Amino acid sequence: MKSYGAIKYKNQASFHPLKYLISILKHLEGTTCNLFEKSKVIDIKKNNSSYDVVTEYYIVNAKYVVIASHYPIINFPGLHFLKMYQDRSYIIAVDTKEKLFWGMYITSESPEISFRTAKFGDSEILLVAGGDHKTGDKAVNVESAYIDLESYIKTIYPNASVMYKWCTEDCVTLDKVPYIGQFSKLMPNVFVATGFKKWGMTTSHVAAQIISDKIQGKSNEYEEVFSATRFEPIENRKEMGANLAQTVKSLILSRLVIPDEKFEDIDNDGGGIVIYKDQKVGVYKNEEGEIFAVKPYCGHLRL
Length: 303
What we know:
Low-confidence stretches: 250-259
Order of helices and strands: HEEEEEEEEHEEEHHEEE
Largest sheet: 5 strands, antiparallel
CATH topology of the domain at 84-173: Alpha-Beta Plaits
Distance between the termini: 59 Å
Strand content: 25-35%
Structural class: alpha+beta
Mean pLDDT: 83
Radius of gyration: 22 Å
Strand order of the largest sheet: 6-7-8-5-9
CATH class of the domain at 84-173: Alpha Beta
């Protein structure tokens, strides 16, 4: 009989993200904290000793600003777009047709696969995630990524059926250590938290502790490890050069490549770049043939 080994961590917690946030909001009720919905921030501007946080409809002035928007909403002078990349991974929700275990698990071998159970009505389902790669890698077939996950889980649960599937994208730094702390030395009192590499529920707590300490003028024993102003990565210097070259190449090609697709050439549940009224347009057709269009330029660099 083949034996298996595992490492167990005590005192782990499984969170429902939405319920967790609602609980935090309840704790803020009755305090001086103001919460704003439907308030997309489009810029942060220096205003003497404070900052104007510019939304689509109004401006909020603040002494301290924390950019915790997954990918930083401003590029300069932080230059984080040069220091990290986007990584895509895939998830399937599975009905195993069997009684499920409790807990969260991740494999140690490659490819890395993670598992966790989730409530679904009166029953439980299994969430299986993996197949990560750099976003935009044309060598990866999206549908194959889902098929690979399904094939893998059926080696454990032969009668399993896929109920839902989706993908997610995460910010990853070049040295795999998140950027937490001062956004730039040129913007005092502006802080950033990004590059969580799929560990957002845990790393966000690290970020909260470091940044709240910085705002209160306290030192934090971990702030140097996660310093957001570091430019030379702790390791992976070669990847930084490759990332810079890929960024520049992508931006140039997005302007120079002439689209050859036409609306009728795009399959349902597919996408492409077309010319519409002498403008490049990114087009996606859903499974019913309904068309969705976006500007195919980098929203962060305005290119």
